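Please describe our next protein:
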Amino acid sequence: MANLGDGAGAAVEKANSSLLKDADPHDESLPGDQEGGDSYRLRDVERDADEKLELPKPAEKLSVSSRKLTFWIMVNILATVAIVYVNKSIFEIPSFKMFQSGFAGLHFLITGLCLYVISRPSIGLFEPKSTSIKSILPLAASMAANIVLQNLALAFSSITFFQIVRVLLTPIVALINYVFYSTTVPRQAVYSLAPACIGVGIVSYYDTKPSSNAKVKTTSPAGMIFAFLGVLASSIYVVWIARYHKKLNMNSMQLLFNQVPISTIVLIVASPITDVYPRWSAVPLRHWILIMVVGFADAARNDDAE
């Protein structure tokens, strides 16, 4: 009988040892405890679920976001270059040189239609958000003045001068923020902007000098005035747009969706006063196609602000 008891005790000890060996060392529950057994099974289920569930890694999310950002940067660059060169080609036609309010109004109309389409629930690139006309009117008027002055500058100056003068946008924005909003700029940044301002001054001097070669396009005094006024208007618009984002709690597309209709109306009202209308029957089909191309390129450039 002693031998039988010893054998039974040894069997029990061996079974307990096996259970302890398989148990979680951090689990304080007893091997034979039903609650502890449930805990083991729950851990196994959770571990299996974690292994089967494949969550997107942060690196993958970052990669998708980077590709999207790169795509829209390229769209912005290509659209901007296309707008400058195609607009310059259109403004070489004398009848379109002083048709700036109507020209910009047409482009705003195309932009507004594009924004309306992509805001529909079936596409849903952004959710429209409305605000009062009074609150958005100053920004809309600023945008209209910004575009008209830029187009006038392009019409009366060379592309080189037009693009170089735009370099002044950064220092003027910094100056406006400092004077009106007490936003300081690091000293190193100020030093880096100084050569850009000097370069603009040098180009302004040489590009406005008359050339003996008739094929060389130079900048007229009117073009220089429009170019500097255009940079000033753009700088004010850049400063205001940042403030309006916070003030109205809207993203870029929502803000533009509210601006464009009002800017279009402002330009339509101003057009009979400021514009010299071309003879429509004399405008060739090629130029109408170019106008539409610029309109959609402008819409693409504006819509990628988001």
